[in-house]
Every structure is written in structure tokens, then in C-alpha cells.
């Protein structure tokens, strides 16, 4: 019953949050104006061993003086297991190396507030009261939901407050303990390298003070000022690098509980097909095969219809699953094709006005009617995630308890779905979150969790590891949505943009995600569909940016930088078209529309200055884009060789607020550029007769070493609140390359992936 109550409460809050996103709604009134609850102390003590002493819900001091930090965010290569400990180490005055990570319990103080708060569809320039009130309300709702999730480039942004407060609060407690022991005013004491020090030479280690400190009231935590930072802002090495180099790092696929069996899936040949029958007898006769299972009845909306084979090795399970004789009932998507998807998109753009996410002035006023009009249509395909670590999950169901070993971005949701599939209370589900060999949004989904638990339920208490093949991962992903966008702008006699009309169409990720994982119906606008279009910084008097949601027969999900990934290509390419039509340089054209946006202007200027002049036979393409709170400008140096687009160099300037770890920021810009470049030059998922046509890296290519450009990162100094880093480097690369190609060839590429032929 407890699990049912928690689920009902979460569904109610998610429903209210959806109401708030659509129109702020009645949720804002009354309850919404009260302050959010604290995030320093959990509902239960930290699970500790070896005499460690907890000083709040986030950290504890061990007998050797090391600090245990409860880590609620998943490490998938973005460096949060280094950046987040830096926040605590800074405020606690301990060496970064002394901070050890333990998995955070499933407590609501660890929920990701920033990620949900950022889902509101307000323009970044909006400083109104309604926006402030809506953000306050959604932050409160997110605190009550307490969903532990890693995504939206939000880990440092979300941890900036509570993790620093945890460190500062513990420091105050330790100083208070020393002051009481020495009978001196606390103000006379200082801290350094895990010890409290008095001017008279007395020194006490945190370990010696921890037990006494646990009973000290820290008062309101006092955070350091940026001028006093010693660790934040320094390029600290990644803490996970040594284990990944020497092979000791444990990813989800490395789970090896004793007695483990292996499972492989037999998935439908087309979208929407349902398993109607199979012949298990010949498969059960194969070496090592233990079971052949129909998972469809247990999985419902949480997975496609499928069968599974359990064996003593994964290879045997895979071979047997592939050989399983099956019969399938065709679904409504049996004849789906990419051409049909885009035809429906065009019909919707012709017939629907869409939801206007941003409007100012009048795009069809009499004042602009006679001006020169420039129009264009852009297109982006479905994309797979193609993470290096295959989709996997290990599960055990025994004695009414469920144990999960998983590389997941959403452990809280994983626990909930495991409980539902196994028919147990959520408190009877444990999870060990291992390293992720790439996430990119794919591991926000929990279909593999549901499948693994459904299999383990029928394996007599043995743990079972489910691993998908690469082909299954490519053909049964939750894809980045395809999209179609139309633009119409008018230029005045000076070549300035007098009006800007943009309407796009795509499926709604949020609608599908809420239905898949929470059973909620999709309704209302979805910011992810229009982000990167409606929230642009350019100062254009007359604007209308709208979006039409198309019911997507294709399963779609969050993909690195989400809507920004294609909307930046649309918007920045069309800006370049307008600059050319106006007979102006693309950089000067943009600068003239950023008079009231000095931070954007500084980022653009920094990237251009660093890039310099392209060598003969090459061209520079520029793109400027804001996403996840960060402003990024990129200059791509491009050549065309034997009809192929080659990118030799990318300069990437970013203003992400306070740079917690410049080393990680540079790494993430490099990663994001290469990820985005893979998609820009080769990424495309197409459908024919209900089937995905791609299967592996031979026909869904990712960038190879020989194609990798030099990436140079310029970090703009800032004192603003830290913003996103993991995703903002991806959106600008496609338009920067496309704009360079136009400079070289005079050919405007309006469809992704970018192809000259």
C-alpha cells in the first residue's frame, strides 16, 4: 500500500506540475508561495559503516578523517563525480582526494530540483513576476517529488546550493565542537585541510571532533564568497580517470553477482508488433538454455512486446533468442515510412497555427508588409543514442525483495518500475548505480529495468543480467524526434530583420515519457519541442515562434541537448541566410542584434577572435546558441574534399557562469562537439514498412578518429550562478558547419545530416 500511496502522490504532483507548465495554474496560489522545504537533512540517517559520523543528510566523517559524500547523480563521462565533490570540499576545507563517494539513499532531499524548474517554457529575457512565481512553485513541487535523476545539464546547477550548504554546515559544526572543547569563541577558529586550528597553535582533526560535532547546532550555513574559493575554479583532474584507464571501473555491464544467469531478448521486427506465439521446444534443447519467456503480459506500456531467453552465458542466450521461432500480430505502424512522417508534418504546418511559445509585436503588421521576405524550410531526422555501453540491467527477485545493478540516469524511477513489475513495495527494492558507458538520455528510460525484473521474477531467485545487442539498441531506441521547421522573415531597407515568423512541428518527448513511465496522459505544450527557437537572444521587434505537436507513432525520448539539438540548426542557419540576403557578414549581422545582450556578445567575440582567419581553401562558419542556461559560440573551420565535408578545427567559447572545474568544461565541450558532429555529418534513423533501416555503426556512423577536428575551448570568466555544461556544446556545431559549407560552395544545406551529394 505504501508504494501505491507514493505513486499516487507522485502522479498528483506531476499532474499539477504539468498544469503549472501549461499556464502556471491554480497550483501557484496558496501552497506555491510558501518556501520550499530544506534539503540538508533526509528523512532517515545516512547508511554508514566503520564508525563514520553523519553531520547532515549529505556527508559523514570517517575515523581516518576522510569525508563520505552521498552521491545522487550518475557518472556517465560528464565529470559530476569530480565536480560535485569539489563543492563540498571547498566549503568543508578538506582536500578533494579525501572525499569518498557513497550512493545516496532514495530520499527526497536528493531529488533534482533544477531539472524540473528548467522545464518551464519562459524566455530567458523574461524577468516578470509570473515567471518568478512559477519557478518558485515548480521548485517546491520538485522538492516534494524528490525524483533522483541525472539529466538536463543540471547536476552542478542543482548541487550548487545544497552541497555547498552541506559542507558549510558540517564545517560550522566541527568548528563549534572545537570551540566548545577549547572553551574559546568559534570566531577565533579557522579550518584547513580537514582540521580546526586556533591562533595559539592548537589543532584538532575533523575525525577527532566528529562525534562531538554531531550534536552541535550549526545555525544557518554561511557560504564562502567566490573571492575566497581555493578549489572551485581550478582545473582539478577527473577522479574517475585512473580506474577507467586501468580497467577497474565498474559499469552496469560489469555487474557479477554470484550465481548470475544471462538473458537476451527477441524483439518485434516492426514498430507496434505484438508477440502472438512462439515455439520454445527447439530453443530449450539448445546448450545452456534455462528458460524461454513471453514478457509481454508483465510489461504493458513499459516496453515493447518481446520474448526472452535465459541461459548460462550471454552468447548462448543471444544465439538462442535469435533462433526463437515467433509469430507476430501487426500493429498500426506496420506500413510506417519516413516519407509518411514528413508528409504528415507538412500537413500539420499547413493546417495548424500551433502553440505560440513567444510573440512580440506584429509579424504581419502593415509596417512590414511591403518589405522583402525571405522564407526557408528545414528538416531534421530521428536519431539514435548509440552509447558505447550496450543497454543492460542485472536484476534479482528473491524472498519478496528486488536487487538491481544498473547504469541508469534515473534510479528513483528505476526503483518505482521495478517495484511495480515485481509486485512489491518500493522500500523492498535496492539498487546499485554503476558507471554509465554513455547515457545521452537513453538511460533516462527504464524499459531495460522492467524487462530484467520481469525475467528475474521467473528465475527462482537467481540474478539475471539482460544485455541488448547493438542492432536491438539501434532498431528499438527511444529516438531523438524528427522535426520540420518553416521560417519567414522580412528585411527592412537597412538589411535588418523587421519580422520573424517561425513554426515547427515534431512529436512531444515529454508526453510520451510521462505516459511510459508514470501512466499520465500527454497534454499541453512541451518546452522541449520549441526550445532553441522561442528563447533566442536576438533583438527582433516583431516575432512569433510557434510549435505544432504531432502524435508520434515512433517512440521518442530525450537526446543530448533535446530540442536544442535541431532547433539551433534551424535558427542559426536561417540567421545566416538572412545575413547573406542582406548582403552582410554573418558575425556583424548577429552583433547588431545583441546590443542588450552583452554576455552573448562577449561569447561570440571571444570565439571569433580565437578562430582568427581560415587558411586558403577553408571557410569559417559561425553559430551562437544559448541552452541549459549557458551561452556557446562556435566557429567551425571546414573544407570540402572529394565532395565530402571535412571539419579541421572548432573553436568553442562558453559562458556557463562560475566555472567550477575548467578542465571538465573543456572536456565536455570537446565531447559535445564530437557528439553533435557525428549527428550533423552522418546521423539518421529512417523507417520503411514499419522497420528501422539502420542496425549498427556501419550504417549509423559515429565520428572516427581520422575525422575528429581539433577543438579549442574558451571559458568566459563569470560570477553568475553555474549553468549547464554537458549539453550546450552540441547544438551550435551543425549550423556552424552548414554555414561554413555555404561560404565555400554557395550551397545552402537545410536538411540534416549535411550532405553535398
Report on this model:
This protein is 33% helix and 21% strand. It is α+β, with helices and mostly antiparallel strands and 757 residues long. A seven-stranded mixed β-sheet has the order 10-11-8-18-15-16-17. Strands 13-21-20-19-14 form a five-stranded mixed β-sheet, with helices on both faces. Strands 1-2-3-4 form a four-stranded mixed β-sheet. It is globular, with a radius of gyration of 27 Å. The model is unreliable at 1-13 and 15-28 (pLDDT under 50).
Rg for CA atoms = 27 Å
The biggest sheet, with number of strands, parallel, antiparallel or mixed sense and barrel status, is: 7 strands, mixed
Tell me what portion of residues adopts beta-strand conformation.
15-25%
Side-by-side strand order of the widest sheet: 10-11-8-18-15-16-17
How many alpha or pi helices?
23
Identify low-pLDDT runs: 1-13, 15-28
Distance between the termini: 61 Å
How many strands?
27
Helix content: 25-40%
Overall structural class, as computed from helix and strand content, comes to: alpha+beta
So what's the oligomer here?
Answer: single chain
Mean pLDDT: 95
Overall geometry: globular
Amino acid at each position: 500500500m505504501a508504494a501505491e500511496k507514493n505513486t499516487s502522490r507522485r502522479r498528483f504532483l506531476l499532474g499539477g506540475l504539468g498544469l503549472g507548465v501549461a499556464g502556471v495554474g491554480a497550483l501557484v496560489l496558496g501552497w506555491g508561495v510558501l518556501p520550499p522545504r530544506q534539503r540538508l537533512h533526509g528523512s532517515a540517517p545516512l547508511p554508514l559503516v566503520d564508525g563514520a559520523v553523519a553531520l547532515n543528510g549529505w556527508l559523514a566523517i570517517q575515523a581516518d578523517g576522510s569525508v563520505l559524500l552521498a552521491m545522487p547523480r550518475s557518472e556517465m563521462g560528464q565529470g559530476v563525480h569530480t565536480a560535485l565533490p569539489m563543492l563540498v570540499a571547498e566549503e568543508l576545507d578538506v582536500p578533494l582526494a579525501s572525499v569518498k563517494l557513497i550512493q545516496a539513499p532514495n530520499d527526497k532531499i536528493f531529488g533534482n530540483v533544477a531539472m524540473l524548474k528548467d522545464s518551464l517554457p519562459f524566455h530567458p529575457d523574461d524577468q516578470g513576476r509570473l515567471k518568478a512565481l512559477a519557478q518558485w512553485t515548480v521548485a517546491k513541487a520538485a522538492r516534494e517529488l524528490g525524483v533522483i535523476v541525472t539529466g538536463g545539464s543540471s547536476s552542478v546547477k542543482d548541487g550548487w546550493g545544497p552541497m555547498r550548504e552541506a559542507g558549510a554546515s558540517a564545517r560550522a559544526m566541527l568548528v563549534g565542537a572545537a570551540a566548545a572543547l577549547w572553551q574559546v569563541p568559534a570566531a577565533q577558529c579557522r579550518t584547513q585541510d580537514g582540521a580546526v586550528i586556533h591562533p595559539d597553535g592548537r589543532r584538532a582533526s575533523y575525525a577527532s571532533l566528529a562525534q562531538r560535532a554531531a550534536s552541535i547546532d550549526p545555525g544557518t550555513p554561511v557560504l564562502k564568497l567566490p573571492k575566497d574559493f581555493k578549489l572551485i575554479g581550478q582545473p582539478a583532474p577527473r577522479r574517475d580517470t585512473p580506474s577507467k584507464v586501468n580497467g577497474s571501473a565498474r559499469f552496469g555491464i560489469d555487474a557479477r553477482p554470484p550465481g548470475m544467469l544471462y538473458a537476451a531478448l527477441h524483439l518485434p521486427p516492426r514498430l507496434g508488433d505484438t508477440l502472438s506465439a512462439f515455439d520454445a521446444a527447439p530453443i530449450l534443447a539448445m546448450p545452456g538454455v534455462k528458460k524461454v519467456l513471453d514478457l509481454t503480459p508483465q510489461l504493458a506500456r513499459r516496453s515493447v512486446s518481446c520474448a526472452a531467453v535465459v541461459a548460462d552465458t550471454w552468447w548462448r542466450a543471444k544465439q538462442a533468442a535469435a533462433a526463437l521461432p515467433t509469430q507476430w500480430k501487426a500493429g498500426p505502424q506496420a506500413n510506417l515510412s519516413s516519407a509518411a512522417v514528413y508528409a504528415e508534418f507538412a500537413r500539420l504546418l499547413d493546417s495548424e497555427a500551433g502553440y505560440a511559445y513567444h510573440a512580440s509585436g506584429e509579424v504581419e503588421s502593415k509596417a512590414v508588409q511591403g518589405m522583402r521576405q525571405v522564407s526557408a524550410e528545414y528538416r531534421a531526422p530521428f536519431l539514435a543514442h548509440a552509447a558505447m555501453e550496450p543497454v543492460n540491467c542485472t536484476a534479482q527477485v528473491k524472498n519478496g525483495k528486488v536487487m538491481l545493478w544498473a547504469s541508469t540516469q534515473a534510479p528513483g524511477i528505476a526503483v518505482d518500475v521495478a517495484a511495480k513489475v515485481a509486485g512489491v513495495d518500493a522500500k523492498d527494492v535496492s539498487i546499485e548505480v554503476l558507471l554509465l558507458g554513455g547515457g545521452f538520455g537513453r538511460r533516462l528510460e527504464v524499459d531495460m529495468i522492467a524487462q530484467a525484473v520481469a525475467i528475474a521474477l521467473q528465475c527462482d531467485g537467481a540474478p539475471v543480467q539482460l544485455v541488448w545487442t547493438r542492432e536491438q539498441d539501434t532498431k528499438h531506441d527511444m529516438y531523438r524526434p524528427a522535426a520540420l521547421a518553416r521560417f519567414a522573415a522580412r528585411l527592412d531597407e537597412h538589411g535588418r530583420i523587421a519580422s520573424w515568423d517561425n513554426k515547427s512541428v515534431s512529436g512531444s518527448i515529454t508526453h510520451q515519457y510521462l505516459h511510459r513511465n508514470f501512466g499520465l496522459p500527454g497534454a499541453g505544450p512541451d518546452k522541449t519541442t520549441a526550445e532553441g527557437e522561442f528563447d533566442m537572444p536576438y533583438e527582433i521587434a516583431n516575432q512569433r515562434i510557434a510549435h505544432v505537436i504531432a502524435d508520434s507513432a515512433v517512440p521518442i525520448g530525450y537526446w543530448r541537448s533535446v530540442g536544442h539539438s535541431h532547433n539551433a540548426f534551424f535558427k542559426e542557419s536561417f540567421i545566416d541566410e538572412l545575413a547573406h540576403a542582406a548582403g552582410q557578414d554573418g558575425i556583424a549581422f548577429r552583433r547588431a542584434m545583441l546590443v542588450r545582450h552583452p554576455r552573448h556578445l562577449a561569447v561570440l567575440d571571444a570565439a571569433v577572435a580565437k578562430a582568427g582567419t581560415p587558411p586558403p581553401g577553408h571557410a569559417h562558419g559561425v553559430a551562437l546558441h544559448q541552452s541549459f542556461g549557458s551561452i556557446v559560440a562556435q566557429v567551425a573551420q571546414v573544407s570540402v574534399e572529394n565532395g565530402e565535408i571535412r571539419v579541421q578545427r572548432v573553436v568553442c567559447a562558453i559562458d556557463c557562469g562560475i566555472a567550477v572545474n575548467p578542465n571538465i568544461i573543456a572536456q565536455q565541450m570537446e565531447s559535445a562537439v564530437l557528439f553533435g558532429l557525428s549527428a550533423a555529418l552522418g546521423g539518421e534513423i529512417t523507417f520503411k514498412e514499419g522497420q528501422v533501416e539502420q542496425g549498427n555503426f556501419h550504417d549509423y556512423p559515429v565520428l572516427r578518429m581520422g575525422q575528429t577536428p581539433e577543438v579549442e575551448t574558451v571559458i568566459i570568466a563569470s560570477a553568475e550562478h553555474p549553468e549547464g555544461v554537458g549539453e550546450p556544446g552540441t547544438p551550435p556545431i551543425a549550423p556552424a558547419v552548414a554555414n561554413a559549407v555555404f561560404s565555400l560552395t554557395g550551397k545552402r544545406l537545410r536538411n540534416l545530416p549535411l550532405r553535398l551529394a
